[in-house]
Amino acid sequence: MLGPVILAASRSDKMRRFISAAPGTKQVVDRFIAGETVDQVVPIVEDAADKGLEVTLDVVGEDITTPAQAEAARDAYLELIERLKALDLGPRAEMSVKLSMFGQALEGGHELALANVRPVVEAAAAIGTTVTLDAEDHTTLDSMFAIHEELRKDFPQTGCVIQSYLFRTEDDARRLAAEGSRVRIVKGAYKEPASVAYQDKAEIDKAYVRITRILMEGEGYPMIGSHDPRLIAIAQELGRQAGRKLDEYEFQMLYGIRSDEHVRLAAEGHRMRVYTAYGTDWYGYFMRRLAEKPANLLFFGRSILTKG
Questions:
Q1: Tens digits of residue pLDDT in 122-165
Q2: Annotated catalytic sites, by residue?
């Protein structure tokens, strides 16, 4: 399987330098990364709104080694929120954050991440939007869920992400599927050991369906993160079986992948949100996108071979 190999490469400085310098890299990175600056991403948010789409914005970057870098990540999100406020785009754009960017892995990281993310959540609420806490590798999840619970005391609309490949997730879904919650379900994109995660795609998909059913039958707001047509159709059916209206859950897909499907689902009356990443530290995010789907890797390989 190529996925684990690519995920291992995502942590290699040597591979980072090689891929960053490859002639075809920019073409493929531009497919998944909306730009490097707020100025570049704002027109994309405006275009999405014109098409009846919503977005969730992710300032990419996870290799945080100092408290100062964590504060810089916080400030990048605060700058984004100020721009959305000025353009009255708050209701169309939420934020997705990785707590690793806010210092979670540093000494005293749990408290540091909470202190850095809280002003972002507060500023988002002030412009009529919210924040979703992304799931990272399994060792970070207890801290993420604890921060999520703490933030929801003052900002109950704060969302979180769960990953179907982890054995623990069905229990997490039952706990989280409560009134007022917002939960995004994804398959998962980190290299996890067999002791904590399914390794077989079919088992991951089966778990995804079980978890989606739990969320649809719960009292919260499910966010279905998938590009798989079969899983999308199953989610629609589970929503119907649970008696949900089309605006009582949403689909989420990545910027640059199945864009026609984004518009189609929105035209059918579904809430459709495009996960839109931007920033200069794109490498880790980019490599996980390659690992998720072989077609992405083939596209990258062709780009390198045809550029020179």
A1: 999 999 999 999 999 999 999 999 999 999 999 999 999 999 99
A2: 134, 184
User: How far apart, in Å, are the Cα atoms of 191 and each of 2, 7, 9, 197, 283?
Assistant: 11, 6, 11, 9, 16
**Cα gap 144→138, rounded to integer Å:** 10
| Tokens found for residue 83 | 């721009």
Token pair listed for 2: 């190529």
What mean pLDDT is predicted for residues 103-107? Answer: 96
**Angle at CA of residue 219, ends 122 and 269, nearest 5°:** 85
Residues listed for the chain: 308
Tens-digit pLDDT profile for residues 20-36: 555 555 666 667 788 88
pLDDT value of residue 300: 46
CA distance 183 to 174: 11
Q: Strand pairing of 271-278 and 182-186?
A: unpaired
Q: How far is CA 243 from CA 43, 123, 203, in A?
A: 36, 34, 27
- Considering all CA atoms of the chain, what is the largest pairwise distance in Å, rounded to the nearest integer? 55
Tell me the one-letter amino acid at 261: E
Cβ–Cβ under 8 Å, residues 182 and 132: yes
Count of Cβ atoms closer than 10 Å to residue 53 Cβ? 21
pLDDT higher at 303 or 129: 129
For the packed helices 201-217 and 229-241, what is the interaxial angle rounded to 10 degrees?
A: 30
One-letter identity of residue 73 = A
Report d(CA 224, CA 306) in Å as an integer: 36
